[in-house]
Structure formats: C-alpha cells, structure tokens
C-alpha cells in the first residue's frame, strides 16, 4: 500500500507541476509596440547595425562604416516622447538626448535634442533632414526589430536594420 500511495503522490505532484507550467506559459503576455514606449532598454551591437543601405535615383548601395569596437551595447531610457542613450552603460560618457515624435503605435521620428547638449555636425545634419523614421518590423521574445530610415533633402534614402530589447 505504501508504494502505491507514494507512486500516486508522485503522479499528483508531477501533474500539479505540469499544470502550473502550462498556466504560467498561457499567462505570459506577448509584447506589443506599446511595451517599447516607456522604460529601460538595450540595443545590442549587431552585424545588421553595421550596415547602411543607400538608395539614390535608381542605384542601391551598401555602406559599412568603421564601428567603435569598444561599444558592446547602448542603454536606452525612454519616456513617452524622449529618450536618453548611453554607450555601454548608464553614466558612461556623454549621453545622447533624443526627441521622439510618434507617428503611430509602432513608428516614430527621432531627432536630436539641441536644448540638452551641443550637437555634432552629423546630428545637426540628421535634424536638418527631418530626422530618422523608426518602424517596427517584428517583435520576437523581448526584442523589437526595426528599420530606421532617413530621406535626405536631396532625395537619398538611407536605412539600417536594428533591434531594441527590454532589460
């Protein structure tokens, strides 16, 4: 009888654990674009981020600029309409202050905030060309994949694929 009771207890315990795990996984929420509007995130340095696609008139070219190998990831602290970017960690070096203008739930225009810091020539040029439009391409696990696109005043389109993940 003892063996039978112990065996049934094990079955009951295993069934309870299995049902608990099923319950947890069914309660796990899929992330949406709204989950990436406010909070702390990181942008890992990836191969995709190293490549820019440039479309001008009828030609398409790729540009792979030299990257700073000391940067492993960017930390992003995002409020609804602003974000601060740090290289390799909060309070590490000078932050980038950025303004987000939401176009829809999954798309925003990014420009640099000249009221918070002096802008480099590159950042001034981005602002003069109406900023960078960032659009979600997919959400997988805790990461949002995006395409960042800028159309210059001369009609050139520059785009880059990227990823931002919840901490």
Automatic annotation (TrEMBL):
Keywords for the protein's UniProt record, in alphabetical order: Signal
Extent of the signal sequence: 1-28
The superkingdom of the source organism is Bacteria
Q: What's this protein's name?
A: Uncharacterized protein
This protein's species is Polaribacter atrinae
């Amino acid at each position: 009888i003892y063996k039978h009771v112990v065996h049934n207890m094990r079955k009951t315990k295993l069934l309870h654990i299995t049902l608990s795990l099923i319950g947890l996984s069914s309660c796990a929420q899929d992330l949406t674009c709204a989950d990436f509007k406010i909070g702390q995130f990181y942008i890992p340095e990836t191969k995709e981020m190293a490549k820019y696609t440039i479309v001008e008139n009828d030609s398409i070219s790729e540009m792979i600029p030299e990257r700073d190998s000391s940067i492993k990831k960017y930390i992003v602290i995002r409020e609804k309409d602003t974000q601060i970017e740090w290289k390799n960690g909060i309070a590490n070096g000078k932050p980038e202050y950025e303004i987000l203008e939401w176009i829809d739930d999954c798309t925003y225009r990014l420009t640099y905030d000249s009221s918070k810091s002096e802008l480099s020539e590159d950042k001034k040029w981005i602002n003069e060309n109406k900023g960078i439009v960032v659009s979600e391409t997919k959400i997988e696990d805790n990461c949002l994949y995006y395409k960042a696109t800028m159309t210059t005043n001369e009609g050139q389109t520059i785009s880059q694929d990227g990823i931002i993940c919840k901490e």
